[in-house]
């Protein structure tokens, strides 16, 4: 660039940065809340990015070549929305609806806005999700787009950020650029590391990243940093920008007590005067170069595995088999696992389709985040680990629902029936956790053929979809051609004189079937329902059972009593007229230890023997 | 040491190490499951530690001067239990009950054994908990004990390990020594970093730790490393030991496919022969030097804050006030917060008792782990953040229950009633999450005086105790002297002709009271119950209400429909004779955005207006 070009370039960056600052203040003051000072610190960084490095087609947010910009520090939403306005994507009128009821411009960004990939606001999630998008970009799309992630300094305390840093380095994600806004001040005072940019530098370098320390308000330094960061060199880059919180407004700069506070109208006026207001300008953003998605093999019909019933099969094994079959049929299916793929059986897929399998090591937060990132790039991700260890990623699962992500999670080794390993490995709260996720779907198959069909359905189902699988081998109950669907159930035993209904799913269904036989010998006829679709529950079948079988239920589950299958069954009967049924919940009521699966199910009170006792007691009147 | 002494020392280390190896194989082969090879890799490390550096009084596990030994790689339990046997703490007979039903020697260690501080087995938790104990040791107990944490290499992928590494450095925890068993092989093949000990070294050094890289089978190197690590120098130390999985047995050494597999009896025999068996020896462990706990100020009666009702008060503020009062009365009360103490109001305590407040920055897993560590050292920890962000630590909370830890968690900013910040900040699944934790207690106060009393009760209550607080200021409903207890409830409105009962808690109670007034104007009398103790629920009061008020309930909560207050109320009526009452649950049914608290509660269907409608509909028959 000539000096004149440079000057005009700097002028443009300045103009945009000051406009972003003014707008960040305007919208938050109008809302009466928000984080203007956290926006001001990053305005220069975002101005240079937007004008000179971002490639994004705001008219076509689905353009596969678009860069991805994630505000991991979601509270800087005034800055992000100011950028959308400056890009001409939203009008000033809409811009000023920030944080108002019904506005798309929520307090923290969500994909209600078409230019936002994922919801942020729970700190430490943007970078791990960026890793997922970068994996898709580098290894699946093979397109040159960049993933730019703006991080706050406080959020680097989250371990999930280090999971992302570790994985980005391991996978050589040089399409990923983190921009760390080191403004020194957190919500309640100085951050742990303050302005110690050298500490950040040393840490990320030790993890194999490029680190570029700059003054986050020097356009020269910002520009060179982005120029370097956009050149692929086999490693991800973190731009570590020393910034000033509230930059540009004298009474805000580097002052404590201003986090998450809007300025009063008078303060805002004064601030805007200081910022030398420019008019509401539109700044063109470079569109991405035309590029083509790689041709993909055509989708084929899924050739699911079939189990003839001669041998018992663990549903976790059927999951692996079915996932592999899905992989053969649909090139968009990808799999992730938390270094337990030989236990979850995701390894069946990994061996067959190593290019679409991404080992996430023992980092469940990163694994779920990567699945969300894959969903952003329209893949069909299945992520697996032990059911118990999904609790590690609950915040990510919760946020995935706000992100409107389509992810499939599969938790193996559920319940006390895993046996000797003991309670740390037993998923006993997974159903409660997954049921309470907004818009979620939860299935829990009891048999290999059922598992296979449900895996296929999961691929075509939106939202957060969870499958619980069983460690132990269990008998095959159903023929390969029997049909199962999300929202369905199977009535396994039914007669005209059923006295009571037992509802079970997964491993306890096998106990219920044993109980059925024992009760038949006692001349007690029960209905047995396989409620493999825990959410949504098959209401019709349960309502019919209530009417036809004495309005009495025993529900049995390998889970704590709260929030699982029992509550899902009962929930069908709330919100309705008429007398509600009697329901006895059999669930795990004491802390298990080690033992055989049979010993532990007996101890927990969820074995066939306990079902028989509960049925008898309920029929007698407890 | 003289050469002879050295030789005899090495012989002793060798003897113990080989005995530990033999026993690790014996017990796992007898159990038919377990992780012998992961035990063998660390046997030399643990032998030197036990003979020469550990100070522990096995006869008195409550001795405050005892060191703390945490197996973060809990699957190496055969090694740990072999050490207990070698120390004479358990007999060989008990030792051989490993993984059997009813045995204290579970698949992964739990505090069912008196020498085990905390349950491990969910990887990446031992070091964060060690940080908590080390904080107590250095800053509260001020005793010279060490915390030794044995880590596996795979688990360093967990972000929580880096939260711990960061915090240990920040707090200069030179009483904490990590021992990283880099045996290269994870569950399903090579770990991410394999034997790249230099990578581990660079990473932890960048975080401010001392790092000592050694051959984990060279007694010389192990001994010098422990010698250096036990000298306080202002920083925590990680001993990075390159080891061989299966060390000592030719057909196991560095072989894939042996993770988590017991040897057959024949294989075990062969292995034991190779290991040149020593007899079952007892190896004396050094007892800690006598030391005294610091004298503590005597406990005093708690002088709780009193709210006269002239002004509305947020329950989160009352939490802060009460916690401060508790701090004045009881020197064992400590507080932790995730860098939001000015929002949770933990800052009231922090300002008054800075020596007992531990800032955990935005690292919720570390925060809960530190609370568990404080519980190990008999403190009364209160840990606070936004309700939503406790989801980040669910795995730690779940494990805290298995650890039989006594911790108090306080989540502010619950529900849509937080307003403009949007869904990422709204705790809408916290009640479901906390209710499904084994042995947990959940309270959700509606008023400042109630909050204060419940905070006091939490301090005296065991297990995982959770309080949900509200962001907004709400009217004070109760007099300062009114009594509330865990397990109780308050009937606010009651008459002889109640047609229906509305149950609410926290912010929705205020809506229920408005609804009561509106319904009274319509000549509809309802009972209103403040169910501030969500778990355990006051069964008696609810049963009476069912009987006296039409067997109909409307339950209203600022939470997703699954697993919250509504389900807690319904649960009272399961397991009982007679049909269930009719229950209508009002809960948040759609994804909220931003808006005022009132707009969002109206939109969610949990405002007074919706309660009135639901009551009318239920009385009409829906």
Can you give a write-up of this model?
Two copies of one chain form a homodimer. The first copy, chain A, contains 22 helices and 21 strands. Chain A starts with a helix and ends with a helix. In chain A, the strands form five sheets. The first copy, chain A, has a seven-stranded mixed sheet with strand order 10-9-11-12-14-13-19, sandwiched between helices. A five-stranded parallel sheet of chain A has the order 1-2-3-7-6, sandwiched between helices. A five-stranded mixed sheet of chain A has the order 16-18-17-20-21, sandwiched between helices. With 622 residues, the first copy, chain A, is of the alpha/beta class. The interface between A and B is large, with 116 and 115 residues.
Gross morphology of chain A is elongated
How would you sum up the major sheet of chain A?
7 strands, mixed
Strand order of the largest sheet of chain A: 10-9-11-12-14-13-19
Structural class, judged by helices and strands of chain A?
Answer: alpha/beta
| Terminus-to-terminus distance of chain A | 87 Å
- List low-confidence stretches of chain A: none
Assembly level:
homodimer
**Gyration radius from CA atoms of chain A, angstroms:** 28 Å
Count of helices of chain A? Answer: 22
Largest interface: A-B, 116 and 115 residues
Could you estimate the helical fraction of the residues of chain A in percent?
Answer: 25-40%
Content of β-strand of chain A = 5-15%
Let me know the average pLDDT of chain A: 96
How many DSSP E strands of chain A? 21
């Amino acid at each position: 660039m000539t000096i004149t070009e440079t000057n005009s370039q700097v002028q443009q960056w300045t103009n945009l940065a000051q406009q972003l600052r003014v707008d960040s203040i305007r919208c938050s003051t109008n809302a009466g809340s928000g984080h203007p000072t956290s926006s001001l610190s990053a305005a220069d960084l975002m101005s240079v990015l937007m004008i000179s490095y971002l490639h994004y087609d705001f008219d076509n947010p689905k353009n596969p070549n678009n860069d991805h910009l994630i505000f991991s520090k979601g509270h800087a939403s005034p800055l992000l929305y100011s950028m959308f306005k400056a890009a001409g994507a939203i009008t000033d009128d809409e811009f000023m609806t920030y944080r108002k009821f019904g506005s798309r411009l929520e307090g923290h960004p969500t994909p209600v806005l078409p230019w936002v990939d994922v919801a942020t606001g729970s700190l430490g999630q943007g970078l791990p999700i960026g890793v997922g998008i970068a994996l898709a970009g580098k290894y699946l799309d093979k397109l040159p787009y960049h993933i730019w992630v703006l991080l706050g300094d406080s959020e680097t305390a989250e371990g999930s950020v280090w999971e992302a840093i570790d994985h980005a380095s391991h996978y050589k994600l040089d399409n990923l650029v983190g921009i760390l806004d080191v403004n020194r001040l957190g919500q309640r005072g100085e951050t742990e590391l303050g302005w110690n940019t050298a500490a950040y530098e040393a840490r990320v370098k030790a993890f194999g990243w490029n680190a570029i320390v700059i003054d986050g308000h020097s356009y020269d330094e910002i520009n060179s940093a982005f120029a370097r960061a956009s050149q692929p060199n086999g490693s991800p880059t973190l731009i570590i920008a020393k910034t000033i919180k509230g930059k540009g407004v004298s009474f805000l700069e580097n002052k404590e007590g201003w986090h998450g506070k809007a300025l009063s109208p008078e303060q805002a006026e004064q601030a805007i005067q200081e910022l030398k207001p420019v008019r509401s300008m539109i700044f063109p953003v470079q569109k991405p170069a035309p590029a083509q998605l790689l041709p993909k093999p055509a989708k084929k019909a899924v050739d699911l595995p079939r189990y003839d019933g001669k041998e018992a099969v663990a549903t976790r094994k059927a999951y692996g088999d079915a996932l592999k079959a899905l992989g053969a049929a649909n090139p968009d299916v990808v799999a992730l696992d938390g270094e337990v793929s030989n236990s979850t059986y995701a390894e069946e897929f990994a061996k067959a389709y190593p290019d679409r399998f991404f080992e996430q090591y023992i980092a469940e937060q990163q694994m779920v985040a990567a699945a969300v990132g894959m969903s952003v790039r329209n893949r069909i991700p299945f992520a697996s680990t032990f059911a118990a260890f999904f609790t590690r990623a609950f915040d990510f699962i919760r946020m995935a629902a706000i992100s409107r992500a389509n992810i499939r999670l599969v938790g193996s080794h559920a319940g006390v029936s895993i046996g000797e390993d003991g309670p740390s490995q037993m998923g006993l709260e997974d159903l409660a956790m997954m049921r309470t996720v907004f818009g979620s779907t939860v299935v829990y198959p009891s048999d290999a053929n059922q598992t296979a069909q449900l895996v296929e359905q999961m691929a075509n189902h939106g939202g957060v979809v969870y499958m619980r699988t069983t460690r132990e081998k269990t008998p095959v109950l159903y023929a390969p051609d029997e049909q199962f669907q999300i929202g369905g159930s199977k009535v396994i035993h039914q007669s005209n004189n059923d006295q009571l209904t037992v509802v079970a799913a997964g491993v306890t269904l096998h106990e219920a079937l044993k109980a059925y036989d024992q009760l038949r010998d006692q001349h007690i006829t029960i209905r047995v329902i396989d409620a493999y679709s825990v959410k949504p529950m098959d209401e019709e079948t349960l309502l019919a059972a209530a009417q036809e079988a004495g309005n009495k239920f025993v529900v049995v589950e390998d889970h704590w009593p709260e929030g699982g299958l029992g509550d899902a069954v009962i929930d069908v009967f709330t919100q309705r007229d008429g007398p509600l049924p009697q329901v006895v919940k059999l669930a795990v009521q004491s802390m298990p230890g080690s033992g055989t699966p049979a010993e532990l199910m007996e101890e927990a009170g969820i074995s066939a023997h306990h079902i028989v006792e509960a049925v008898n007691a309920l029929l007698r009147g407890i």
